[in-house]
Specification:
By secondary structure, the chain is of the alpha+beta class. The chain is built from two helices and three strands.
């Protein structure tokens, strides 16, 4: 029942420019992203996988289709855009090769 109420509240946030509620494939955690006043996205998350016995764990290589979410709303177009570089007086010149 708690997730039902959280889902209702997060759907209201989505109407105001937030992105989520969803679940990542890698880590299996729930997520919700919010844009700060400068346009950068940051993540709230919960219930990430916990590995209690590393001896019984083996790493997995996930494909790009699983790199972001298992389920959730469509990705915002500017999700991977770095607004901090745009705001820099030096622009992209501050990045090194």
């Amino acid at each position: 029942m708690m997730w039902v109420e959280a889902g209702r509240q997060l759907s209201q946030l989505a109407k105001r420019g937030h992105w989520g509620f969803g679940r990542h494939t890698i880590g299996s955690n729930f997520f919700h992203y919010i844009q700060d006043p400068w346009g950068s996205w940051f993540e709230y998350y919960s219930d990430i996988d916990y590995i209690a016995d590393y001896a019984q764990w083996s790493p997995t290589n996930y494909g790009m289709e699983d790199s972001l979410d298992n389920w959730g709303p469509d990705l915002p177009q500017d999700f991977v855009h770095n607004y901090e570089v745009d705001a820099s007086p030096y622009g992209a010149a501050t990045q090194t090769a």
